[in-house]
Design brief:
By secondary structure, the chain is of the alpha+beta class. It is built from nine helices and 14 strands. The protein is elongated, with a radius of gyration of 58 Å. About 1% of the residues have low confidence.
Length: 535
């Protein structure tokens, strides 16, 4: 599981937001839901109470077999009815109002004052005006099928929110005197009330806005308060601790460290101050020991440099001085080989010539490696065609290979010009070719490959020898390290200087040299040379 990254300040603020914001949000959201439920509960209770009053009024009028009103009074105007009963009296003609007519008159009074509106709706009304609408049909169906006592919904009427409430009307004995087709105890219709509730919705919206503002203010205040406390008690001391730690890493060791904010942080400061003092003492003691050791190492280094210089000078001088007597010995040996005719003496002279060549080769290698390490060699860089150079070396080395029954193969890829010291690069290729011939079994093949890379050439010498173990592939390019040779029972062959000289020459040209396994058996020695810009 990956650890969360970021500063402690960022993590703390994120934790506060993730904890406080949802918690307070849930609290205020629940408060808003409760207020909304209470508001709608009051609307429903208001509708229930109003419905109960109207039904009681209807019941009283029904029990009284109607109410007689003068036709010329305001209360008798605008109502109308499906039929009328008139009663002449000394005060004028009175008209009997049925429960339905009384309900309609009360609804007109309420509607004129913009309070609410209600009406009767019957299943089989005598008055066509009392036919139920869609809402009332759904209410009557609900009352008949599930015996519900109320049915309500929220609707939109000309852009105004209206709360529609309906209660069932049951048939009793008094209703049967007028409504002959009804059955006592059944649902004859419903009383529907339309209450304007736009003010309720506006009030709820205003309340929600106030709750949101209060919640936002409380969240911001809580986050800022907690952030200030933690910053003062934790973050600032930690920042001071970081500054002190960086100072200690730069060698500044304060004696007294005061964080402030809390006793715990002050105790941490005291412990850090004590540690700082001990580190200062340890540093001073270590610096003194390092200074003494450095002085001793400097003296030893100077002695080693002197010895190395003397060694190089000795080897260079000795190898140079050995060349003259060796040349004289070779001249005398050549004279004896031409003049002596006895076969036994010719054998001894051949042995002497072979060992003399080895000695000359050894002296030459020592002379070259000492001059390279002493940086006293003179490099003669110039453009050279590597294909032509390799071809000439193959031609020169072919007789030596044929003596060991080996074949040399080189397919020229065309001109490849590099800036090289021709003599030294020829020395590298000859050395690698000589090793390949030395270690390859009779009847084998030594091949040469030139490859063009990005800004460089690769020259490869591939043999079919015993190969070189992976753990020895880097060491063979060091001085005096030899690899097991072919045909000598695993005993090292050579002086161990040839590949070291090759490595130094290649590096001086800005290239690389390495060895790897040959898929066909044996080894592949590869070195690179920078290509000329025009190539």
């Amino acid at each position: 599981m990956h650890a969360l990254r970021g500063s402690l300040q960022f993590k703390f603020v994120s934790a506060i937001i993730c904890i406080v914001v949802p918690l307070l949000g849930i609290i205020f959201l629940w408060q808003g839901v409760v207020e909304e439920r209470q508001a709608w509960s009051q609307v429903v209770n208001q509708a229930r109470l109003l419905t109960r009053q109207i039904i009681l009024t209807r019941q009283w009028v029904s029990d009284s077999q109607g109410v007689f009103l003068r036709q010329d009074t305001p209360g008798a105007q605008g109502g109308g009815g499906f039929y009328s009963d008139l009663l002449p009296t000394e005060r004028g003609v009175l008209q009997r109002f049925t429960p339905s007519m009384i309900t309609k008159q009360l609804s007109l009074y309420s509607y004129r004052q913009n309070l609410y509106r209600f009406r009767l709706a019957g299943i089989a009304p005598m008055n066509p005006e009392n036919r139920p609408d869609d809402f009332e049909l759904a209410a009557i169906k609900s009352f008949s099928q599930s015996e519900n006592k109320e049915y309500y919904t929220l609707a939109d009427h000309d852009g105004e929110a209206i709360f529609q409430y309906s209660a069932p009307l049951y048939v009793d004995e008094t209703c049967l005197s007028c409504h002959k087709n009804y059955t006592s105890g059944t649902v004859s219709g419903c009383l529907s009330i339309h209450l304007p509730v736009q003010h309720v919705l506006d009030s709820l919206s205003s309340s929600k806005l106030q709750l949101f503002s209060s919640a936002l203010a409380l969240i911001v205040l809580t986050v800022l308060t907690l952030y200030f406390l933690v910053r003062h008690l934790v973050l600032n001391p930690l920042s001071t601790l970081e500054t002190v730690a960086e100072g200690i890493s730069r060698g500044q060791f304060p004696e007294r460290i005061h964080f402030g904010g809390s006793d715990e942080m002050n105790r941490v400061g005291q412990a850090l101050g004590s540690m700082s003092a001990k580190l200062r003492e340890g540093r001073d003691r270590l610096e003194e020991e390092v200074q003494n050791a450095t002085s001793e190492l400097a003296l030893a280094n100077e002695e080693l440099k002197t010895l190395d210089r003397l060694k190089s000078e000795f080897l260079a001088t000795m190898s140079h001085e050995l060349r003259s007597p060796l040349t004289s010995i070779r001249g005398g040996l050549d004279y004896l080989r031409r003049t002596e005719t006895a076969s036994d003496r010719q054998d001894y002279l051949q042995i002497m010539d072979k060992n003399l060549r080895r000695l000359v080769h050894l002296v030459t290698d020592i002379f070259d490696i000492t001059r390279i390490e002493a940086d006293k060699i003179e490099w003669n860089f110039g453009p050279a065609d590597m294909s032509e150079l390799v071809g000439e070396i193959v031609e020169i080395m072919t007789p030596l290979a044929e003596e060991r029954e080996l074949r040399l193969r080189f397919l020229s890829p065309g001109p490849m010009t590099a800036m090289v010291d021709v003599e030294r690069i020829e020395q590298v290729i000859v050395n690698l070719t000589d090793n390949a011939i030395k270690y390859s079994p009779g009847g084998g093949l030594v091949s040469f490959v030139l490859l063009r890379g990005e800004g460089e050439f690769k020259i490869q010498v591939r043999d079919q020898g015993p190969g070189i173990p992976a753990e020895a592939r880097e060491a063979i390019f060091k001085k005096f390290h030899t690899a097991p040779s072919s045909g000598h029972s695993g005993k090292p062959g050579g002086t161990g200087l040839g590949l070291a000289i090759c490595s130094q020459i290649v590096r001086a040209h800005g290239g690389r040299i390495w060895v790897e396994d040959n898929p066909e058996g044996g080894s592949i020695f590869t070195f690179t040379l920078p290509a000329r810009d025009e190539d």
